[in-house]
Design brief:
Blueprint: H1 24-70, H2 72-95, H3 109-113, E1 118-123, E2 129-137, E3 145-153, E4 157-166, E5 178-187, E6 196-199, E7 208-209
Parallel strand pairs: 1-7, 4-6
Antiparallel strand pairs: 1-2, 2-5, 3-4
Length: about 210
C-alpha cells in the first residue's frame, strides 16, 4: 500500500515514517525551572527585606535600652535634686528665710553623690563663687579621690552636688582610709544674694560664711 504524500512543509505520517521530536515538553520543563528561579530570587529578596527591616527596628531599640540602663543613676540623681529643691521652696513659702524643709531620705544616694554632704560654704567677694567643705577621701594614694561640684539653683536656694572621682575603681566608699576634710569650688549662674545653700544628700540648708 502506498501512503499519500503531502506538500512540502506538511507532516508525513505512516508506518516507518519518523516524526520530528516535539519541543513542547522541553519548553514546559524550562518554564518550570525559570519559575522556580524567579520564586527563589523573590524569596531571597523578601527575606533580605525583612532582615533589613528587623535590623532597622532592633538597632535603635537596643541602643535606647543600653542608654536607659547607662543613665539610670543620672535620672535618679536628677529626681533627688528636684525633690530637694521643691521641698525647700515649699518650706520657704510657709516659713520664709528661716525655712527648714523636711529632710529627704538617703535611699542609697550616698554612693551616687560621692560624699555624705556639704558641711559649710564660704561665699567669695563676687557673690557667685562658693567654696564648699565636706568630709571625703584623701588626696593621694589608691584610696584617694578628686572631687568636682556643680550647683543646681532655684528661686530661693542653690543646691551643691559634689561628685567623687576615685583614683582607683571602687572609691572611698570601699576604702577604710576616709575622713579627710576636703574643699571644692563651684560657681553659680547668678549671685547668691540671700538665698539658702543646700547640701544634696538630704536637701538641708548649711551654714554660709559671707565676706
Amino acid at each position: 500500500m502506498i501512503w499519500p504524500s503531502y506538500a512540502q512543509g506538511n507532516r508525513v505520517s505512516g508506518p516507518g515514517t519518523s516524526h520530528p521530536r516535539s519541543t513542547d515538553g522541553a519548553g514546559l520543563v524550562a518554564t518550570r525551572v525559570n519559575r522556580r528561579r524567579v520564586r527563589g530570587v523573590f524569596w531571597i529578596m523578601t527575606r533580605t527585606r525583612w532582615v533589613l527591616l528587623i535590623t532597622a527596628v532592633a538597632v535603635p531599640v537596643v541602643v535606647g535600652a543600653l542608654w536607659w540602663i547607662a543613665t539610670e543613676d543620672d535620672r535618679r540623681l536628677d529626681g533627688h535634686i528636684r525633690q530637694a529643691l521643691e521641698g525647700y521652696e515649699q518650706a520657704f513659702a510657709r516659713e520664709g528665710t528661716e525655712a527648714t524643709p523636711t529632710p529627704l531620705r538617703r535611699n542609697g544616694y550616698a554612693p551616687l553623690l560621692g560624699v555624705p554632704s556639704v558641711e559649710k560654704v564660704t561665699v567669695h567677694e563676687d557673690d557667685r563663687t562658693l567654696t564648699a567643705e565636706f568630709i571625703g577621701a584623701r588626696t593621694t594614694g589608691p584610696c584617694g579621690a578628686d572631687y568636682t561640684a556643680r550647683a543646681v539653683e532655684s528661686a530661693h536656694a542653690a543646691l551643691i552636688v559634689v561628685e567623687e572621682h576615685p583614683h582607683e575603681r571602687g572609691g572611698s566608699w570601699d576604702c577604710p582610709d576616709v575622713g579627710y576634710r576636703r574643699q571644692v569650688t563651684v560657681r553659680l549662674g547668678r549671685p547668691l544674694d540671700d538665698r539658702a545653700v543646700l547640701e544634696a544628700m538630704r536637701g538641708m540648708p548649711v551654714p554660709v560664711k559671707r565676706p
